[in-house]
Amino acid sequence: MNSVIYFLKPFIALIKIMILIKLGGSIITNKEKPLTPNRDLIRKIASSLKNVDEPIVIIHGGGSFGHYWSVKYDMHTKPQKYSIKGVATVKNSMVELNSIVLESFLESGLKPYCLPPSDFMIGDKPLTKKVEEIPKIAKTGLIPISYGDAMWFGKNKFYILSGDRIMGVLAKLLRPRLAIFVTNVDGVYSDMKSKRLLSEITTEMPITSEVTMDVTGGMSRKIKEAFNISKGGTDVFFVNGKVPKRITNAINGKSFEGTIFRG
Would the pLDDT of 66 be above 90? Predict the structure, then answer.
């Protein structure tokens, strides 16, 4: 028996040892006003995570930074030969936004660790060995923070790698205990007119949500990734980041308001 446990240790170490959190661009920026971060809310969310005693990995979106410029330069998730100026502008804006997030976390007493997606992705494929290092970094007390970005694909092509897609990639390889999408709404609605909140979703349930599409897929992309992550056995929460306590409630298994995709 001991020999079996010893053999399995490297695999056990990668399973359900961390919390994966996506901070949507609509939460960390004012999407109605280009290049406007929501520093106050970022700090409040960061402060709410101070008492979490599990390893955390953060991914954030582009909001009124990267998203704004990707629309302006007509850049999408499909690899193509986009405007070089557009690629440079989107990438630089995401570095700027990431710096703001890192600074806000540091000011809140946390220990953020910048993790550009190019550190663990090549083309549109993950570098498995690099991905497997991420929870090891998180276990030191640092909080790896990555983000959606304009990425080199090869053959003079680029593409937009969304934060939602990064969530799916990392969840598949790392099997976190929980995955949390932090948005600017209370969760997933059955339809946008009635605002009837779906508190629980399983992979067998049909989804008929009327959602607004954006250049990187919007809520429909989040729902798609959440389904795929939950199929892998990880519970996925959608919570409203305007109430940061809902994030820690989801982590701690307390009274929860939002939507859960059952893994």
Answer: yes
